[in-house]
Amino acid sequence: MKIYAVCGAGIGTSVLLKSNADRVLATLGIEAEVQAVSVSDAMASESLAQVVLITPELKDQIQGIRSEVIPIENIFNLEELTQKLSAALS
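Given the sequence above, the corresponding structure tokens read:
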């Protein structure tokens, strides 16, 4: 499974989101590759992600992609990440 953690440039918020997603996935016992990427990388036609984690203010910028888009309100809230990733990956 491939998951993208997305922010505008792929070097700020997405890195923090990736780190927390990795922690949550390890706790859940789910094997997945999480990559920090930019919005343009997430929109690329060769994108292989099944799931995209993104902040709500950027969600409209990735309309029409084939991945499941999960908006994350608070990237530091591990409970929110756990709940949303559990629901998406079960």
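The chain has three helices and four strands. Try to locate this feature in the token string yourself.
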